[in-house]
Design goal:
Shape: elongated
Structural class: alpha+beta
Strand content: 5-15%
Radius of gyration: 23 Å
Number of domains: 1
Oligomer: single chain
Number of helices: 5
Order of helices and strands: HHHEEEEHH
Length: 166
């Protein structure tokens, strides 16, 4: 190879390397922005819950939270949230998990993690294993039965009878 061919090869390799680094950086930036916006939306939801608890003495209903979520900035990045207010009572500790994202948010540095809202309004970034462990400790028998029923309905929905008329 002559000098000119070596220079072209070196320049091409440099451009490919810089492009690859830029693509990786852009993907990481996108993930960071999505995660930050989702965290901000959950923090806002946490503030709403704390304010509601201070003025009403209990956690808001799921319909109230759903209406509030529609107005949150970053709600799209937050995704679906499991809200456990139905299973929270006056004896529940401030560490009780009140809500969490149904799908994890990914990060190359931290892996896939869930955004968790505690009863006292704290927001945490939590791995699946820890979330599952805490939920197993906090879930009541009634909550577990409710989850089983929901999963049965998803797996085996009621059949549609076109001849049925009320």
């Amino acid at each position: 190879m002559n000098k000119r061919q070596k220079a072209i090869l070196r320049d091409t390799a440099t451009v490919i390397a810089i492009t690859a680094i830029a693509v990786v950086a852009m993907i990481a930036l996108r993930n960071w922005i999505n995660r930050s916006e989702a965290m901000r939306a959950m923090e806002h939801l946490g503030r709403v819950v704390v304010q509601y608890r201070q003025s009403h003495g209990s956690v808001p209903s799921e319909s109230y939270i759903n209406r509030t979520r529609e107005e949150l900035e970053g709600r799209v990045r937050l995704g679906d949230v499991t809200y456990r207010a139905q299973w929270i009572n006056f004896e529940s500790s401030p560490d009780e998990i009140l809500a969490y994202t149904e799908k994890p948010h990914g990060s190359w540095l931290f892996g896939k993690r869930y955004i968790v809202l505690r009863l006292d309004g704290r927001i945490e970034w939590m791995g699946k294993q820890k979330l599952d462990m805490l939920l197993a400790q906090q879930r009541s028998f009634q909550e577990l039965e409710s989850l089983r029923e929901k999963s049965k309905q998803i797996l085996h929905p009621p059949s549609f009878d076109p001849t049925f008329s009320p």
